[in-house]
Amino acid sequence: MKNFTSVHDVPQIDALVKKALAYKADRFKDKTLGAGKRIGLLFLNPSMRTRLSTQIAAQNLGMEPIVFNVGQEGWALEFEDEAIMSGSTVEHVKDAAPIMGNYFDILAIRTFPSLKNREDDYSELYIKQFIKYAGIPVVSLESATLHPLQSLTDIITITECLNNTTPPGRGEAGGKRPKIVLTWAPHVKPLPQCVANSFSQWVNAWGKADFVITHPEDYELDEQFTKGATITHNQDEALKDADFVYVKNWSTFKDYGKIYNNDPEWMLTNKKLATTNNAKVMHCLPVRRNVELSDEILDGPNSIVTQEASNRVWAAQAVLSEILASQK
Amino acid sequence: MKNFTSVHDVPQIDALVKKALAYKADRFKDKTLGAGKRIGLLFLNPSMRTRLSTQIAAQNLGMEPIVFNVGQEGWALEFEDEAIMSGSTVEHVKDAAPIMGNYFDILAIRTFPSLKNREDDYSELYIKQFIKYAGIPVVSLESATLHPLQSLTDIITITECLNNTTPPGRGEAGGKRPKIVLTWAPHVKPLPQCVANSFSQWVNAWGKADFVITHPEDYELDEQFTKGATITHNQDEALKDADFVYVKNWSTFKDYGKIYNNDPEWMLTNKKLATTNNAKVMHCLPVRRNVELSDEILDGPNSIVTQEASNRVWAAQAVLSEILASQK
Amino acid sequence: MKNFTSVHDVPQIDALVKKALAYKADRFKDKTLGAGKRIGLLFLNPSMRTRLSTQIAAQNLGMEPIVFNVGQEGWALEFEDEAIMSGSTVEHVKDAAPIMGNYFDILAIRTFPSLKNREDDYSELYIKQFIKYAGIPVVSLESATLHPLQSLTDIITITECLNNTTPPGRGEAGGKRPKIVLTWAPHVKPLPQCVANSFSQWVNAWGKADFVITHPEDYELDEQFTKGATITHNQDEALKDADFVYVKNWSTFKDYGKIYNNDPEWMLTNKKLATTNNAKVMHCLPVRRNVELSDEILDGPNSIVTQEASNRVWAAQAVLSEILASQK
């Protein structure tokens, strides 16, 4: 694995999941794999879980992580080719990235969408420019349209749950495919589509589940990620008999970056959960309590959000491990 | 020792002081005690000495410290139970803390008082919520009402001075109890009562000194911390024959968070020092020169503020060492 | 070497350059030299290359670097003696620096000029106060008037180019002195004179080149740094037959901190480069593309800006190594 920016960079999802779970069982099993190597963690916007988990993952492999909050600590970067830089940007990615490539062995980057111009955001210019000019492996810590470390974590967490079911439940051992539902939830702000896009892309590529996406009208996601899933505006129908319910808000894709319907009825409650197959409830966090998800769900026995967030470390460690191995 | 949030967490103050002074004599004596362990240092407000000294202390014990400036680098946290999070907070401590508990082995937190609502501040909701939900040892890097690492440092520094007096001065060796005076000082801003509360609590618990607190009318501190000390509005009387003078500003406790009298006459000067027993002058820093404390004192032979600030490392190292030992 | 704040701290430039190039050949050759030692990196203003390269250099030597963004993470510092601190500054360097001296083995500081008061800036009060009160070696990460780590890097990079010329070109091996030109370039903001001052000071002290400085009228630099160089307002004449062209903007020195002429004609282009001796083009970065330097130069074969920025690591490593060696 050279870069890690989407599921397309992963030769075999289950092998990567297995690797992550091996690190969860023994975090220091490869503690010298990254000795003498450095990873730069560049944040163009804030992050907590992603920052901490990736830093910890790198340290578990013996690498030296260096965190750099671009903008706060450094410079506003320019990404457009041929820009006449007489405005607010002070350094071009064409100049900054090659230096990062000399300073580090792996570069991890957190970028963000404007939510103003869909074509710009979906071109993934920022991360593509870093890949083009850095000359070293690049790991996405969330980009304008995708969040692959989160999605890998989600598949790891789902796999763990399926493995732990006794008698063997759905999934490989149980013979029956689990039903995974991604449901839109209300929020107070227009959010990126990254997590929803990425989760859809990974569940589809994984191919081991019946996958249903439910959201109000006008919240259709980009088909390049959702194709293969059943899509419905009827949340009740979607939730029925679900084994996993992934809750997430996103803003509109077509009329880009808007909040249309923000119906509080879409918030998941215990009452709604009653129609599922005692589903595990997932969320990437941070979550707005009692707006996106009710206290009763988050504090109840079906929530696996803490397990999910904790697995971020093992997802990052598996990815860095693969990249280090391919550099040998 | 499981948590460290006040003197009540310390089984035996002198034993902890002794441990700290042993680290001062040989900082790397336990350099593998924390190997493979991580401490998260969460700052909800800025810090210099506390941040650096705790980070260094952790490294001296072989731990990996990870600093995270919440808010600046991450998220605004919600602490109220059952909050409907449609406002400015983006993550609840109930969700954030357990993840910290999975990422780290020890969690150290710097919180702050609002200085607006006394009941809220004195409930210590922030640090209590972290303790409740993190599931790992929590160290206070200053909370809404207390600053125990500072106070431990202060007792360490006083002990050092008493040990170094020849012929043996006051204190254990000398047979006579030292006189310690905490005096209020002017300032330009309303400050928390943390350092004054905590110093009072520790000196009282230590029990090896005659303890006098002096301040203008209306600056009475919370009795739960000061009980046992002699309290007077007459600074001259208080300073007489003092062995240690601890200088600190604080805002009012009763009519909460206000500045009443801000009389510059309360600033300590060499003239005032003349009536003491050649007292050592202490301050937790940062200090507003020529407002809280005069240049002549800070640059003179009686100031031990640098020694005091430097001892912060050994205080933190002793505390982390105790917590690590209890985790074995 | 005790401190590193200008070329005057360096006993022998070529020996330091040689040391840096040895680290470039084998970065971990002295990987335990700094074991058990700590360097504090204090930033009073933002930095990317300097921050990352110094942090990496310290780690290569086995030191623990601790980055602290003063102001952002900590306190506004006061530098004036006898200040009555009732304003916005919360801690005096007289109190902060000695504590840094206790916490760290080496202190590296990034300060900045106001560009408002020339006497103040050129007094280098900030860095001098740190040296006076810290009691440990101080390394400039750029000060109000100089940027010695950048200049050392520049001499390293020039030396590398001269060594790599076959048949041996100008410089020591070739027998002919290279021609180095420092040319002013347009910019959108008034910038410090640091890099230009420092480059001039180092090239003059190195003494192995014909050194020409060119800039529009009114942009004369301080003679204490430029003395020995040929100075001309005719850029075309200056560039003729040049082996190295160092491009940099600076604001006026005499009528301090102003932009007078900002003629875009001063931007270096391929056409201008044609009259040189196939000159290597240098810039300290960050660079405003198509304002200070054209895309065609930066993306062309003559630019060595990436090599130059990458050499920052080895410059810092050589300096820290010298200081560590002198502490033994």
From TrEMBL, chains A, B, C:
<dbReference type="GO" id="GO:0042450">
    <property type="term" value="P:L-arginine biosynthetic process via ornithine"/>
</dbReference>
<feature type="domain" description="Aspartate/ornithine carbamoyltransferase carbamoyl-P binding">
    <location>
        <begin position="2"/>
        <end position="160"/>
    </location>
</feature>
<feature type="binding site" description="in other chain">
    <location>
        <begin position="284"/>
        <end position="285"/>
    </location>
    <ligand>
        <name>carbamoyl phosphate</name>
    </ligand>
</feature>
<feature type="binding site">
    <location>
        <position position="248"/>
    </location>
    <ligand>
        <name>N(2)-succinyl-L-ornithine</name>
    </ligand>
</feature>
<dbReference type="InterPro" id="IPR006130">
    <property type="entry name" value="Asp/Orn_carbamoylTrfase"/>
</dbReference>
<feature type="binding site" description="in other chain">
    <location>
        <position position="312"/>
    </location>
    <ligand>
        <name>carbamoyl phosphate</name>
    </ligand>
</feature>
<comment type="pathway">
    <text>Amino-acid biosynthesis; L-arginine biosynthesis.</text>
</comment>
<feature type="binding site">
    <location>
        <position position="142"/>
    </location>
    <ligand>
        <name>N(2)-succinyl-L-ornithine</name>
    </ligand>
</feature>
<keyword id="KW-0808">Transferase</keyword>
<feature type="binding site">
    <location>
        <position position="187"/>
    </location>
    <ligand>
        <name>N(2)-succinyl-L-ornithine</name>
    </ligand>
</feature>
<feature type="binding site">
    <location>
        <position position="75"/>
    </location>
    <ligand>
        <name>carbamoyl phosphate</name>
    </ligand>
</feature>
<dbReference type="InterPro" id="IPR006131">
    <property type="entry name" value="Asp_carbamoyltransf_Asp/Orn-bd"/>
</dbReference>
<dbReference type="GO" id="GO:0016597">
    <property type="term" value="F:amino acid binding"/>
</dbReference>
<feature type="binding site" description="in other chain">
    <location>
        <begin position="147"/>
        <end position="150"/>
    </location>
    <ligand>
        <name>carbamoyl phosphate</name>
    </ligand>
</feature>
<comment type="function">
    <text>Catalyzes the transfer of the carbamoyl group from carbamoyl phosphate to the delta-amino group of N(2)-succinyl-L-ornithine to produce N(2)-succinyl-L-citrulline. Is essential for arginine biosynthesis.</text>
</comment>
<comment type="subunit">
    <text>Homotrimer.</text>
</comment>
<feature type="binding site">
    <location>
        <position position="288"/>
    </location>
    <ligand>
        <name>N(2)-succinyl-L-ornithine</name>
    </ligand>
</feature>
<keyword id="KW-0055">Arginine biosynthesis</keyword>
<protein>
    <recommendedName>
        <fullName>N-succinylornithine carbamoyltransferase</fullName>
        <ecNumber>2.1.3.11</ecNumber>
    </recommendedName>
</protein>
<keyword id="KW-0028">Amino-acid biosynthesis</keyword>
<dbReference type="Pfam" id="PF02729">
    <property type="entry name" value="OTCace_N"/>
</dbReference>
<dbReference type="GO" id="GO:0004585">
    <property type="term" value="F:ornithine carbamoyltransferase activity"/>
</dbReference>
<comment type="similarity">
    <text>Belongs to the aspartate/ornithine carbamoyltransferase superfamily. SOTCase family.</text>
</comment>
<dbReference type="InterPro" id="IPR043696">
    <property type="entry name" value="ArgF'-like"/>
</dbReference>
<feature type="binding site" description="in other chain">
    <location>
        <begin position="47"/>
        <end position="50"/>
    </location>
    <ligand>
        <name>carbamoyl phosphate</name>
    </ligand>
</feature>
<feature type="binding site" description="in other chain">
    <location>
        <position position="110"/>
    </location>
    <ligand>
        <name>carbamoyl phosphate</name>
    </ligand>
</feature>
<dbReference type="Pfam" id="PF00185">
    <property type="entry name" value="OTCace"/>
</dbReference>
<dbReference type="InterPro" id="IPR006132">
    <property type="entry name" value="Asp/Orn_carbamoyltranf_P-bd"/>
</dbReference>
<feature type="domain" description="Aspartate/ornithine carbamoyltransferase Asp/Orn-binding">
    <location>
        <begin position="196"/>
        <end position="321"/>
    </location>
</feature>
<dbReference type="InterPro" id="IPR036901">
    <property type="entry name" value="Asp/Orn_carbamoylTrfase_sf"/>
</dbReference>
<dbReference type="GO" id="GO:0019240">
    <property type="term" value="P:citrulline biosynthetic process"/>
</dbReference>
